[in-house]
């Protein structure tokens, strides 16, 4: 479906987000040089690996239990609901669907009403490629989603913000429905002044520019020792001129803000900030410049919640330990980025913080590795996805044994009438010596 209709999908997302064709193929459809998120590659890998993922797992047991043939089956959970967002509409709707199909589930997929062109195209094409008795696309907004949440599902997979996640979790609790919540939050960037400041700034700005900052793994703010704030700002300006020599508003290499409501929210954040806007800050229609704000304090408007747009606050700190403390004192982020060559400082961050992912010396590049999961911790979500991890979300492990009649001599002591002799045999493990 994606291969045969790739130009139509790219055009639909361009209408919704003004997303550049290069970014659409690079991040969502398919590309030659990597298996980062693109759906074509992940569909093929899932098909190739499915037999391996789904085969029963044999377990290591004592010799006397081996005749029981203990194993663990991977079973489909059943009928699942996938609620997808608008910002990466193809990846974040079809990636969970691939996992659900691989696991053997039936699925209802609710794409976002905020990406209407993509959602309408998906609803038109899906019945041509998938059995409508097993897979359905439901269009609509809040009323339709509310109705869906009144039904009992075997699993709900939601990608979006924490406010809606709480509504979904409340609805799921009525039926004790298991959940995958792929959320977001404020993903910090810590910059060690001993690192290559130019590379750190360039890679941070590139990550922030993806989809105009409208992505859950976007760098949300930067923590840098105040003695090196100006050097980092200068490096950001240089990277900006490299990426957008004629400015963002004239560039075809950046998306736009998805809606007037989101645009208004972002501009109001800028109006309220006590920081100093040193780059960007202007907008034209729904297009908005990449904007850098320095000297941002912990209680600034830009630090109240996830920005989800092209605004990058720089929060100066006294030292790197203060940066770690700043992150630790807040909700656990989906991703923590850090630019450093110091093995000691990397270890400090690893041991001193919690985050869904920890990425050193780049942004976004965790999405290029199929063998590691994407998922949050605490308020940034729970559950995992990407290939086998998505398959596992929609599966459950079903334990099994098959006791032959020849096992009777080994289990006969469990039967009544109970005797002291049998008690000593069965209770012996309770009196095993404990190592010092």
TrEMBL record:
Gene3D superfamilies per record: Aldehyde Dehydrogenase, Chain A, domain 1 (3.40.605.10), Aldehyde Dehydrogenase, Chain A, domain 2 (3.40.309.10)
Active site: 182, 216
Annotated PROSITE patterns: ALDEHYDE_DEHYDR_CYS (PS00070)
GO cellular component: cytoplasm
Superkingdom of the source species: Eukaryota
GO molecular function: aldehyde dehydrogenase (NAD+) activity
Residue ranges that the Swiss-Prot or TrEMBL entry lists as coiled coil: none
Biological-process GO terms, alphabetical: aldehyde metabolic process
UniProtKB keywords: Oxidoreductase
Domain called Aldehyde dehydrogenase: residue spans: 3-396
InterPro entries, per the entry: Ald_DH/histidinol_DH (IPR016161), Ald_DH_C (IPR016163), Ald_DH_CS_CYS (IPR016160), Ald_DH_N (IPR016162), Aldehyde_DH_dom (IPR015590), Aldehyde_DH_NAD(P) (IPR012394)
Similarity-based family: Belongs to the aldehyde dehydrogenase family.
PANTHER family: ALDEHYDE DEHYDROGENASE, ALDEHYDE DEHYDROGENASE TYPE III, ISOFORM Q
Entry protein name: Aldehyde dehydrogenase
Organism listed in the record: Favolaschia claudopus
